[in-house]
Amino acid sequence: MSIQWFPGHMTKAKRKLEEQLRWVDVVLELGDARLPLSSRNPLLRKLLGNKLRILLLNKADLADTAKTDLWLSELRQETPVLAISAATNKGIKRIVPLMEEMMSEKMDLLAAKGIRGRSIRAMVVGIPNIGKSSLINQLTGGSQAKTGNKPGVTRGNQWIRIHQKVELLDTPGMLWPKFDDPLIGKKLAATGAVRDEVFDQEELAHWLLEWMKENYPDELKDFYQLSGDELHIEGIGRRRGCLISGGRVDTLKTSQVFLREFRSGKIAKVTMDDIKLNEQ
Ligand SMILES: Nc1nc2c(ncn2[C@@H]2O[C@H](COP(=O)(O)OP(=O)(O)OP(=O)(O)O)[C@@H](O)[C@H]2O)c(=O)[nH]1
Ligand SMILES: [Mg+2]
């Protein structure tokens, strides 16, 4: 997915999401465990009304475990939340039981009205590149077995049975990132949620390097085998052999290498949002 979020796109995505939401009981809202705040769009809350929601902090394999635990206790006060990884399968098995637990009251009410055996209907929602397709694949086991179109659902969307009592919409709901705060924009770009073309790569790498020096200096030094004085784009470029003629460092290439290594989680497992920010 590489569209840019102009107002027209946002309006279209919002309308589609509203249409999809009409047919589901539970929304699986995907967030990024590295950005438990910045990767979410507050508008979803309004769109949901009183519909049930589970927040899934995905890419937990790339996040700072201690900080993830803090965020989980903080966010639990707002909504049921799990830390998961759609890449390693972590936490995936806990999703359906949690859904059943949250839905039991509604199912009892339906049963009292004589409606039995109705499946719980769920859908995945989140900003670009957050892992929506990966999660759908994990939940369906890659299954192509569709349960068929149901009337009313936007043409093209189908339900996939993921459990005896649960059906999942095969098309995820698209949310757009909120760009209003430049710091949020940088964090989203650093983690790969925003197209690289939107930001100047060298500027972004420079900002991220300063951020890492402040927050994960030891991991940074260890990874590049550089001293504190050598921790700049030039130093990393020399270490990685990103040189141009005359032995000068290719700063663009170095920036791209650094961003890639950061996103892979190899430098450090990082969490970029601070809980304190949330309290301001
Ligand atoms: N390390 C890690 N990578 C993940 C995880 N989940 C997804 N990814 C990777 O993140 C990238 C985006 O995943 P997708 O599942 O395509 O995300 P999406 O939300 O469907 O993206 P769009 O359809 O483009 O909006 C892919 O490279 C995935 O392999 C995770 O839990 N951990
Ligand atoms: Mg996708």
- Count all strands and give the number: 10
Radius of gyration from CA coordinates: 21 Å
As for the number of domains, it is 2
Enumerate the distinct ligands: guanosine-5'-triphosphate, magnesium ion
Structural class: alpha/beta
CATH topology of the largest domain: Rossmann fold
Question: How would you sum up the global shape?
Answer: elongated
Helical run tally: 11
Order of helical and strand elements: HEHEHEHEHEEEEHHHHEEHH
Question: How far apart are the termini?
Answer: 33 Å
Biggest sheet, in brief? Answer: 8 strands, mixed
Q: What is the name of the CATH superfamily of the largest domain? A: P-loop containing nucleotide triphosphate hydrolases
The top level CATH class name of the largest domain = Alpha Beta
- CATH architecture label name of the largest domain: 3-Layer(aba) Sandwich
- Classify the beta-strand content into a percent band: 15-25%
Mean pLDDT: 91
Proportion of residues in helical segments: 40-55%
**Unreliable parts:** none
Q: Which structural traits does this protein have?
A:
Conserved Hypothetical Protein Ylqf, Chain: A, domain 2, 2 domains, 8-stranded mixed β-sheet, two-stranded antiparallel ribbon, 11 helices, 10 strands, binds guanosine-5'-triphosphate, binds magnesium ion
